Amino acid sequence: MFKIIWNHLCISLANALPRYHYFNQRRPKLYRLAGLNIESGATITGPLSLRVDTTNKIYIGKNTYLNSETRFGCQDSNIRIGANVLVGPRVSFESASHQVRYEEGLGRPLFTKEIVVKDKVWIGAGVIILQGVTIEEGAVVAAGAVVNKDVKKNTIVGGIPARYIKDVS
Predict the structure, then answer these.
(1) Confidence at residue 146, expressed as pLDDT on a 0 to 100 scale
(2) Three-state SS string across the chain, please?
């Protein structure tokens, strides 16, 4: 119980810090104290949305940039973000969903799958990344896309659902 309260306090304090460069460089330290796995050089410009009991399932690589209002919707599955990744504002990583089929007495059972974002990826504003997706190195996801399938290395995808647009030139 103490760990959950500690995580909540650290996350709340980190989320309350002003959005200035000085605090953006220091905010990851508070998230680390709450259990997030954040490597050196990461910058987080604003509040994160996450459950305090899932902090140990989130991995953020070296020199990665998370813009404001990033959401980590994880329960039993990891969310892994590589090094030198750019994440735009209001991006949502959703590693959990429900079965489509309704089961009497169970409702729609929950299922989870890991999300992996490899190195040097750029994710535009407002993107939603769904469970089980891997975004390969150097890919670009256009703003507002909903990514429900893997994204190949050095490609640009966009739309709802996200589709191949072209190779990164």
Answers:
(1) 98
(2) CHHHHHHHHHHHHHHHCCCCHHHHHHHHHHHHHCCCEECCCCEECCCEEECCCCHHHEEECCCCEECCCEEEECCCCCEEECCCCEECCCCEEECEEECCCCECCCECCEEECCEEECCCCEECCCCEEECCCEECCCCEECCCCEECCCECCCEEEECCCCEEEEECC
